[in-house]
Amino acid sequence: MSWWSRKRQAQLDKSQPEASTKSFLWLEGGSVGAVGSGSSRDFIANCIVMACVHWAMRNAVQAQAAVVDDPNGSEPGYGPPLSHAVARLLAAPQGQLPPDQRTALNGARLIQSIVWSLLLDGNAYVQKLRDDRARVVGLEWLPPLSVEPIAAAHHAGVVAFYRVETPRGPVEIETADLVHFRDGIDAVRLTQGQSRVRAALRHVMTDNHIAVFTRALLQNPVPALMVTPKGEDALRLTAEDAREIARQLTERHRGERAGGVLVPNFPAEVTPLGYSPDQMAISRLNRLPEERITAVIGLPAVVVGMGAGLDRATYANFKEARRVAFEEFLVPLWQDLADTWTEQLLPEFDATPGRRVTYDTRSVMALRDDTDAQWQRAREAFASGLIDRATARRMMGLTVDPRDEGVFSGGEA
After folding, report:
1. Confidence band (pLDDT; 50, 70, 90) for 37?
2. Has this prediction a pTM greater than 0.85?
Protein backbone atom coordinates (compact mmCIF):
# COMPACT_ATOMS: atom_id res chain seq x y z
CA MET A 1 0.00 0.00 0.00
CA SER A 2 1.41 3.43 -0.99
CA TRP A 3 2.06 6.17 1.56
CA TRP A 4 -0.91 8.09 0.22
CA SER A 5 -3.21 5.08 0.52
CA ARG A 6 -2.07 4.61 4.12
CA LYS A 7 -2.72 8.28 4.80
CA ARG A 8 -6.27 8.15 3.44
CA GLN A 9 -7.02 4.86 5.20
CA ALA A 10 -5.84 6.29 8.53
CA GLN A 11 -8.01 9.32 8.02
CA LEU A 12 -11.12 7.26 7.26
CA ASP A 13 -10.48 5.05 10.28
CA LYS A 14 -9.89 8.05 12.53
CA SER A 15 -13.46 8.07 13.79
CA GLN A 16 -16.01 5.28 13.91
CA PRO A 17 -18.99 5.66 11.56
CA GLU A 18 -22.00 6.87 13.51
CA ALA A 19 -25.62 7.53 12.75
CA SER A 20 -26.13 10.91 11.13
CA THR A 21 -29.27 12.62 9.93
CA LYS A 22 -27.38 15.24 7.95
CA SER A 23 -28.20 14.99 4.27
CA PHE A 24 -25.40 15.69 1.85
CA LEU A 25 -24.47 16.03 -1.78
CA TRP A 26 -21.89 13.51 -2.93
CA LEU A 27 -20.65 13.73 -6.50
CA GLU A 28 -19.35 10.55 -8.07
CA GLY A 29 -18.09 10.51 -11.62
CA GLY A 30 -19.41 14.01 -12.20
CA SER A 31 -23.04 13.12 -11.44
CA VAL A 32 -25.24 14.06 -8.56
CA GLY A 33 -25.50 11.07 -6.26
CA ALA A 34 -27.88 12.57 -3.71
CA VAL A 35 -29.18 16.00 -2.99
CA GLY A 36 -29.65 17.17 0.53
CA SER A 37 -32.65 19.46 0.14
CA GLY A 38 -35.42 20.29 -2.31
CA SER A 39 -34.06 23.79 -2.81
CA SER A 40 -30.63 22.49 -3.87
CA ARG A 41 -32.27 20.16 -6.36
CA ASP A 42 -34.30 23.07 -7.70
CA PHE A 43 -31.14 25.16 -8.19
CA ILE A 44 -29.37 22.43 -10.12
CA ALA A 45 -32.44 21.79 -12.29
CA ASN A 46 -33.06 25.46 -13.10
CA CYS A 47 -31.75 26.60 -16.48
CA ILE A 48 -31.38 30.27 -15.44
CA VAL A 49 -29.28 29.40 -12.40
CA MET A 50 -27.15 26.89 -14.26
CA ALA A 51 -26.64 29.25 -17.22
CA CYS A 52 -25.10 31.73 -14.77
CA VAL A 53 -23.10 29.04 -12.98
CA HIS A 54 -21.66 27.60 -16.18
CA TRP A 55 -20.83 31.06 -17.54
CA ALA A 56 -18.90 31.77 -14.35
CA MET A 57 -17.17 28.38 -14.47
CA ARG A 58 -16.11 28.81 -18.11
CA ASN A 59 -14.71 32.31 -17.64
CA ALA A 60 -13.22 32.07 -14.14
CA VAL A 61 -10.33 30.00 -15.53
CA GLN A 62 -9.14 32.83 -17.78
CA ALA A 63 -7.03 34.38 -15.01
CA GLN A 64 -4.15 32.32 -13.65
CA ALA A 65 -3.21 32.21 -9.98
CA ALA A 66 0.19 33.70 -9.20
CA VAL A 67 2.29 34.62 -6.17
CA VAL A 68 3.65 38.17 -6.09
CA ASP A 69 5.50 40.52 -3.78
CA ASP A 70 3.28 43.44 -2.88
CA PRO A 71 4.65 44.98 0.32
CA ASN A 72 2.43 48.04 0.01
CA GLY A 73 -0.76 46.13 -0.78
CA SER A 74 -1.26 48.29 -3.84
CA GLU A 75 -2.85 45.96 -6.39
CA PRO A 76 -2.61 46.18 -9.36
CA GLY A 77 0.77 47.77 -8.67
CA TYR A 78 2.52 44.49 -7.96
CA GLY A 79 5.67 43.05 -9.39
CA PRO A 80 5.92 40.17 -11.84
CA PRO A 81 4.68 36.71 -10.77
CA LEU A 82 7.21 34.65 -8.84
CA SER A 83 8.17 31.07 -9.54
CA HIS A 84 6.50 29.70 -6.45
CA ALA A 85 5.35 26.33 -5.07
CA VAL A 86 1.84 27.63 -4.37
CA ALA A 87 1.37 28.76 -7.98
CA ARG A 88 2.55 25.36 -9.19
CA LEU A 89 0.23 23.59 -6.75
CA LEU A 90 -2.81 25.61 -7.88
CA ALA A 91 -1.94 24.88 -11.51
CA ALA A 92 -1.62 21.12 -10.83
CA PRO A 93 -3.43 20.34 -7.54
CA GLN A 94 -2.61 16.64 -7.66
CA GLY A 95 0.57 16.64 -9.71
CA GLN A 96 2.68 15.39 -6.78
CA LEU A 97 0.38 12.53 -5.80
CA PRO A 98 1.07 8.94 -6.86
CA PRO A 99 -0.50 8.30 -10.29
CA ASP A 100 -2.93 5.70 -8.95
CA GLN A 101 -4.29 8.21 -6.40
CA ARG A 102 -4.93 11.14 -8.74
CA THR A 103 -8.42 12.17 -9.77
CA ALA A 104 -9.35 14.27 -12.79
CA LEU A 105 -8.88 17.44 -10.74
CA ASN A 106 -6.56 19.83 -12.57
CA GLY A 107 -6.11 23.55 -12.01
CA ALA A 108 -9.04 24.59 -14.17
CA ARG A 109 -11.44 22.04 -12.66
CA LEU A 110 -10.41 23.11 -9.17
CA ILE A 111 -11.44 26.72 -9.83
CA GLN A 112 -14.62 25.59 -11.60
CA SER A 113 -15.53 23.38 -8.64
CA ILE A 114 -14.98 26.25 -6.22
CA VAL A 115 -17.13 28.60 -8.31
CA TRP A 116 -19.88 25.97 -8.62
CA SER A 117 -19.87 25.49 -4.85
CA LEU A 118 -19.88 29.18 -3.98
CA LEU A 119 -22.77 30.07 -6.27
CA LEU A 120 -25.01 27.15 -5.32
CA ASP A 121 -24.11 26.77 -1.65
CA GLY A 122 -22.22 29.89 -0.58
CA ASN A 123 -19.32 27.73 0.63
CA ALA A 124 -16.47 25.89 -1.05
CA TYR A 125 -14.05 23.49 0.61
CA VAL A 126 -10.62 22.32 -0.55
CA GLN A 127 -8.77 19.74 1.53
CA LYS A 128 -5.00 19.94 1.91
CA LEU A 129 -3.36 16.58 1.21
CA ARG A 130 -0.20 16.01 3.21
CA ASP A 131 2.66 13.55 2.94
CA ASP A 132 4.29 11.64 5.82
CA ARG A 133 6.24 14.76 6.76
CA ALA A 134 3.02 16.84 7.03
CA ARG A 135 3.90 18.86 3.94
CA VAL A 136 1.05 19.92 1.64
CA VAL A 137 1.54 18.01 -1.62
CA GLY A 138 -1.95 18.13 -3.12
CA LEU A 139 -5.44 19.57 -3.00
CA GLU A 140 -8.84 17.92 -3.22
CA TRP A 141 -12.23 19.57 -3.67
CA LEU A 142 -15.00 18.46 -1.31
CA PRO A 143 -18.72 18.69 -2.18
CA PRO A 144 -20.09 21.56 -0.08
CA LEU A 145 -23.14 19.80 1.32
CA SER A 146 -20.98 16.98 2.58
CA VAL A 147 -19.06 19.34 4.86
CA GLU A 148 -20.36 20.78 8.13
CA PRO A 149 -18.32 23.42 9.98
CA ILE A 150 -18.61 22.77 13.73
CA ALA A 151 -18.54 25.96 15.79
CA ALA A 152 -16.24 26.30 18.78
CA ALA A 153 -17.84 26.25 22.23
CA HIS A 154 -16.57 29.74 23.07
CA HIS A 155 -17.71 31.51 19.88
CA ALA A 156 -20.42 30.70 17.32
CA GLY A 157 -18.39 32.27 14.54
CA VAL A 158 -15.18 30.30 15.10
CA VAL A 159 -14.77 26.89 13.44
CA ALA A 160 -13.46 24.19 15.78
CA PHE A 161 -13.27 21.48 13.11
CA TYR A 162 -15.09 20.22 10.03
CA ARG A 163 -17.25 17.11 9.92
CA VAL A 164 -17.18 15.57 6.46
CA GLU A 165 -19.69 12.94 5.34
CA THR A 166 -18.16 10.21 3.19
CA PRO A 167 -19.59 6.94 1.83
CA ARG A 168 -17.85 5.21 4.76
CA GLY A 169 -19.20 7.56 7.41
CA PRO A 170 -18.30 10.91 8.98
CA VAL A 171 -14.70 12.09 9.25
CA GLU A 172 -13.42 15.00 11.33
CA ILE A 173 -10.92 17.30 9.63
CA GLU A 174 -8.93 19.97 11.43
CA THR A 175 -9.24 23.59 10.32
CA ALA A 176 -5.56 23.64 9.35
CA ASP A 177 -6.24 20.89 6.77
CA LEU A 178 -9.10 22.61 4.95
CA VAL A 179 -9.32 25.80 2.88
CA HIS A 180 -12.78 27.28 3.39
CA PHE A 181 -14.12 29.81 0.87
CA ARG A 182 -17.22 31.78 1.85
CA ASP A 183 -19.53 34.00 -0.16
CA GLY A 184 -20.44 36.66 2.39
CA ILE A 185 -21.72 35.40 5.72
CA ASP A 186 -24.79 33.57 6.95
CA ALA A 187 -26.36 35.58 9.77
CA VAL A 188 -27.77 32.38 11.30
CA ARG A 189 -24.86 29.98 10.72
CA LEU A 190 -21.92 32.26 11.44
CA THR A 191 -19.33 29.70 10.40
CA GLN A 192 -20.67 29.56 6.82
CA GLY A 193 -21.27 31.73 3.80
CA GLN A 194 -24.64 32.05 2.11
CA SER A 195 -25.65 31.20 -1.43
CA ARG A 196 -26.78 34.18 -3.49
CA VAL A 197 -29.33 32.02 -5.27
CA ARG A 198 -31.25 31.35 -2.05
CA ALA A 199 -32.35 34.98 -2.02
CA ALA A 200 -34.18 34.28 -5.29
CA LEU A 201 -35.58 30.89 -4.26
CA ARG A 202 -39.19 31.85 -5.00
CA HIS A 203 -38.24 33.03 -8.47
CA VAL A 204 -36.34 29.79 -9.04
CA MET A 205 -39.44 27.86 -8.01
CA THR A 206 -41.60 30.05 -10.25
CA ASP A 207 -39.40 29.39 -13.27
CA ASN A 208 -39.35 25.66 -12.53
CA HIS A 209 -43.15 25.59 -12.29
CA ILE A 210 -43.39 27.40 -15.63
CA ALA A 211 -41.16 24.74 -17.19
CA VAL A 212 -43.27 21.92 -15.69
CA PHE A 213 -46.50 23.57 -16.86
CA THR A 214 -45.14 24.14 -20.38
CA ARG A 215 -44.01 20.52 -20.63
CA ALA A 216 -47.44 19.36 -19.52
CA LEU A 217 -49.08 21.51 -22.19
CA LEU A 218 -46.85 20.03 -24.90
CA GLN A 219 -47.66 16.52 -23.73
CA ASN A 220 -51.37 17.32 -23.54
CA PRO A 221 -52.07 20.13 -26.04
CA VAL A 222 -55.82 20.06 -25.34
CA PRO A 223 -56.62 22.02 -22.16
CA ALA A 224 -58.58 20.48 -19.33
CA LEU A 225 -62.14 19.95 -20.54
CA MET A 226 -65.51 19.31 -18.98
CA VAL A 227 -67.87 17.28 -21.21
CA THR A 228 -71.61 17.41 -20.35
CA PRO A 229 -74.69 16.13 -22.19
CA LYS A 230 -76.59 18.90 -23.96
CA GLY A 231 -80.26 19.50 -24.64
CA GLU A 232 -83.61 18.77 -23.00
CA ASP A 233 -83.39 15.09 -23.87
CA ALA A 234 -79.78 14.81 -22.70
CA LEU A 235 -78.61 11.40 -21.75
CA ARG A 236 -77.61 10.70 -18.22
CA LEU A 237 -74.02 9.45 -18.27
CA THR A 238 -72.98 6.68 -15.97
CA ALA A 239 -69.64 6.77 -14.13
CA GLU A 240 -68.32 4.18 -16.56
CA ASP A 241 -69.39 6.34 -19.55
CA ALA A 242 -67.64 9.37 -18.05
CA ARG A 243 -64.42 7.44 -17.54
CA GLU A 244 -64.50 6.15 -21.13
CA ILE A 245 -65.01 9.65 -22.58
CA ALA A 246 -62.12 10.98 -20.47
CA ARG A 247 -59.90 8.09 -21.58
CA GLN A 248 -60.59 8.65 -25.26
CA LEU A 249 -60.03 12.40 -24.99
CA THR A 250 -56.71 11.81 -23.27
CA GLU A 251 -55.50 9.11 -25.68
CA ARG A 252 -56.38 10.99 -28.85
CA HIS A 253 -54.92 14.35 -27.89
CA ARG A 254 -51.57 13.69 -26.25
CA GLY A 255 -48.04 13.01 -27.48
CA GLU A 256 -47.79 12.07 -31.15
CA ARG A 257 -51.60 11.86 -31.40
CA ALA A 258 -52.04 15.56 -30.66
CA GLY A 259 -54.60 17.10 -33.01
CA GLY A 260 -56.76 13.98 -33.31
CA VAL A 261 -60.53 14.27 -33.75
CA LEU A 262 -63.08 12.87 -31.32
CA VAL A 263 -66.79 12.99 -32.24
CA PRO A 264 -69.24 12.05 -29.45
CA ASN A 265 -72.28 9.98 -30.45
CA PHE A 266 -74.61 12.08 -28.30
CA PRO A 267 -75.36 15.81 -28.02
CA ALA A 268 -72.58 17.23 -25.83
CA GLU A 269 -71.22 20.54 -24.63
CA VAL A 270 -67.46 20.87 -24.16
CA THR A 271 -66.23 23.56 -21.75
CA PRO A 272 -62.53 24.37 -21.31
CA LEU A 273 -61.34 24.60 -17.73
CA GLY A 274 -58.58 26.88 -16.41
CA TYR A 275 -56.60 29.38 -18.48
CA SER A 276 -54.90 29.15 -21.86
CA PRO A 277 -51.17 29.93 -22.21
CA ASP A 278 -52.06 33.26 -23.83
CA GLN A 279 -54.30 34.19 -20.94
CA MET A 280 -51.55 33.33 -18.48
CA ALA A 281 -48.98 35.40 -20.47
CA ILE A 282 -46.32 32.76 -19.89
CA SER A 283 -43.86 34.42 -22.27
CA ARG A 284 -43.95 37.59 -20.17
CA LEU A 285 -44.07 35.70 -16.90
CA ASN A 286 -40.72 34.09 -17.76
CA ARG A 287 -38.94 37.44 -17.77
CA LEU A 288 -39.30 38.24 -14.07
CA PRO A 289 -37.38 35.15 -12.82
CA GLU A 290 -34.70 35.75 -15.47
CA GLU A 291 -34.20 39.34 -14.35
CA ARG A 292 -34.29 38.66 -10.62
CA ILE A 293 -32.11 35.53 -10.59
CA THR A 294 -29.38 37.02 -12.80
CA ALA A 295 -29.46 40.22 -10.73
CA VAL A 296 -29.02 38.32 -7.46
CA ILE A 297 -26.10 36.34 -8.87
CA GLY A 298 -24.58 39.53 -10.26
CA LEU A 299 -24.52 38.88 -14.01
CA PRO A 300 -26.27 40.85 -16.78
CA ALA A 301 -29.05 38.71 -18.27
CA VAL A 302 -27.86 39.32 -21.83
CA VAL A 303 -24.42 37.84 -21.07
CA VAL A 304 -25.85 34.44 -20.17
CA GLY A 305 -28.30 34.44 -23.09
CA MET A 306 -31.52 35.14 -21.19
CA GLY A 307 -34.43 36.56 -23.19
CA ALA A 308 -34.88 39.35 -20.65
CA GLY A 309 -31.65 40.88 -21.92
CA LEU A 310 -31.66 39.80 -25.56
CA ASP A 311 -34.65 42.00 -26.50
CA ARG A 312 -32.49 45.10 -26.39
CA ALA A 313 -29.16 43.49 -27.20
CA THR A 314 -26.81 44.87 -29.84
CA TYR A 315 -23.17 44.06 -30.46
CA ALA A 316 -22.08 47.25 -28.71
CA ASN A 317 -24.11 46.83 -25.54
CA PHE A 318 -23.42 43.08 -25.43
CA LYS A 319 -19.70 43.81 -25.42
CA GLU A 320 -20.19 46.40 -22.69
CA ALA A 321 -22.37 44.00 -20.67
CA ARG A 322 -19.69 41.32 -20.95
CA ARG A 323 -17.10 43.78 -19.69
CA VAL A 324 -19.37 44.72 -16.77
CA ALA A 325 -19.78 41.01 -15.95
CA PHE A 326 -16.01 40.61 -15.74
CA GLU A 327 -15.45 43.80 -13.74
CA GLU A 328 -18.39 43.47 -11.33
CA PHE A 329 -18.53 39.69 -10.96
CA LEU A 330 -15.30 37.92 -11.89
CA VAL A 331 -12.74 40.46 -10.67
CA PRO A 332 -14.23 40.56 -7.13
CA LEU A 333 -14.49 36.76 -7.24
CA TRP A 334 -10.81 36.44 -8.15
CA GLN A 335 -9.90 38.86 -5.35
CA ASP A 336 -11.89 36.83 -2.79
CA LEU A 337 -10.28 33.57 -3.95
CA ALA A 338 -6.82 35.12 -3.85
CA ASP A 339 -7.35 36.48 -0.33
CA THR A 340 -8.46 33.05 0.90
CA TRP A 341 -5.49 31.27 -0.71
CA THR A 342 -3.20 33.89 0.83
CA GLU A 343 -4.64 33.45 4.31
CA GLN A 344 -5.15 29.69 4.40
CA LEU A 345 -2.68 28.10 1.96
CA LEU A 346 0.31 30.39 1.39
CA PRO A 347 1.53 30.22 5.06
CA GLU A 348 2.10 26.47 4.55
CA PHE A 349 4.90 27.38 2.13
CA ASP A 350 5.97 30.97 2.72
CA ALA A 351 5.85 33.55 5.51
CA THR A 352 7.55 36.39 3.63
CA PRO A 353 5.89 39.72 4.59
CA GLY A 354 4.03 41.33 1.69
CA ARG A 355 3.92 38.14 -0.36
CA ARG A 356 0.48 37.02 -1.48
CA VAL A 357 -1.57 35.11 -4.02
CA THR A 358 -3.29 37.03 -6.79
CA TYR A 359 -4.98 36.29 -10.11
CA ASP A 360 -3.18 37.72 -13.11
CA THR A 361 -5.86 39.36 -15.27
CA ARG A 362 -3.51 40.92 -17.81
CA SER A 363 -4.23 38.19 -20.35
CA VAL A 364 -8.02 38.39 -19.98
CA MET A 365 -9.31 39.76 -23.28
CA ALA A 366 -12.42 41.39 -21.78
CA LEU A 367 -10.19 43.43 -19.45
CA ARG A 368 -7.45 44.20 -21.96
CA ASP A 369 -8.43 47.89 -22.09
CA ASP A 370 -7.71 48.12 -18.36
CA THR A 371 -4.22 46.77 -18.92
CA ASP A 372 -3.54 49.28 -21.71
CA ALA A 373 -4.83 52.09 -19.50
CA GLN A 374 -2.63 50.93 -16.61
CA TRP A 375 0.44 51.03 -18.82
CA GLN A 376 -0.50 54.48 -20.07
CA ARG A 377 -0.94 55.78 -16.51
CA ALA A 378 2.42 54.33 -15.51
CA ARG A 379 4.17 55.98 -18.47
CA GLU A 380 2.53 59.35 -17.83
CA ALA A 381 3.23 59.26 -14.09
CA PHE A 382 6.87 58.42 -14.70
CA ALA A 383 7.23 61.00 -17.45
CA SER A 384 5.81 63.71 -15.20
CA GLY A 385 8.16 62.80 -12.36
CA LEU A 386 5.45 61.61 -9.96
CA ILE A 387 6.88 58.09 -9.58
CA ASP A 388 10.27 56.49 -10.06
CA ARG A 389 11.12 53.94 -12.73
CA ALA A 390 10.83 51.00 -10.33
CA THR A 391 7.25 51.91 -9.38
CA ALA A 392 6.31 52.40 -13.03
CA ARG A 393 7.66 48.97 -13.96
CA ARG A 394 5.78 47.38 -11.04
CA MET A 395 2.55 48.99 -12.25
CA MET A 396 3.21 47.45 -15.67
CA GLY A 397 3.92 44.04 -14.12
CA LEU A 398 7.52 44.09 -15.36
CA THR A 399 10.67 42.89 -13.65
CA VAL A 400 12.25 45.58 -11.47
CA ASP A 401 15.99 46.05 -11.31
CA PRO A 402 17.35 47.44 -8.01
CA ARG A 403 18.98 50.20 -10.05
CA ASP A 404 15.50 51.44 -11.03
CA GLU A 405 14.74 52.46 -7.45
CA GLY A 406 14.74 56.23 -6.97
CA VAL A 407 15.32 56.95 -10.65
CA PHE A 408 13.08 59.78 -11.89
CA SER A 409 12.96 61.06 -15.43
CA GLY A 410 11.09 63.52 -17.55
CA GLY A 411 11.51 61.27 -20.60
CA GLU A 412 9.67 58.13 -21.70
CA ALA A 413 9.42 55.09 -19.42
Report:
1. very low
2. no
